[in-house]
Design brief:
The protein is built from 3 helices and 2 strands. The protein is mostly helical and about 110 residues long.
Length: about 110
C-alpha cells in the first residue's frame, strides 16, 4: 500500500483551489501512478453529515477537548448539518481489517530479502 500526504485546508474554497492547481499541472505526465483526471469544480451540499468521536470506555478526551467537540457539534447542528456519534470498531476487528488491507497485494510490498 503506497502512502500519500493529503491537503489540509481551512475551508472548502481552499481545498478547491489546491485541487485545481494540482490537476491543472497534469501530474500524470510525470507520475505514472496518477490517473489523467481533469479538474472539476465542486459545490458542497447545503446539508452535510459529520461523524464525531467523543470517547468510549477506553479513550476519553480531556475536558477541554470534550468541550471543544461539543461546541463544534452545536455550531454544525445550528447550521443545519447532521452530526453522528461515531465509535471505533472493536480492537480485534480493527486488527483483522488492517491486516487484510495490508495483505491485499499478497504481501508483495512487505517482502524483504536478507
Amino acid at each position: 500500500m503506497l502512502s500519500t500526504i493529503g491537503p489540509i485546508t481551512r475551508s472548502a474554497r481552499d481545498l478547491d483551489l489546491i485541487f485545481r492547481v494540482i490537476m491543472e499541472s497534469s501530474p500524470w505526465l510525470v507520475d505514472p501512478e496518477c490517473l489523467p483526471v481533469p479538474y472539476r469544480p465542486f459545490d458542497l451540499p447545503i446539508r452535510m453529515s459529520f461523524a464525531c468521536f467523543t470517547g468510549d470506555a477506553v479513550h476519553k478526551p480531556n475536558p477541554t477537548i470534550a468541550q471543544g467537540l461539543q461546541r463544534v457539534r452545536e455550531a454544525l447542528e445550528a447550521l443545519g448539518h447532521e452530526v453522528i456519534d461515531w465509535t471505533y470498531p472493536e480492537p480485534d476487528n480493527v486488527k483483522d481489517l488492517t491486516l487484510d488491507l495490508l495483505r491485499a497485494d499478497g504481501g508483495a510490498e512487505g517482502r524483504f530479502t536478507t
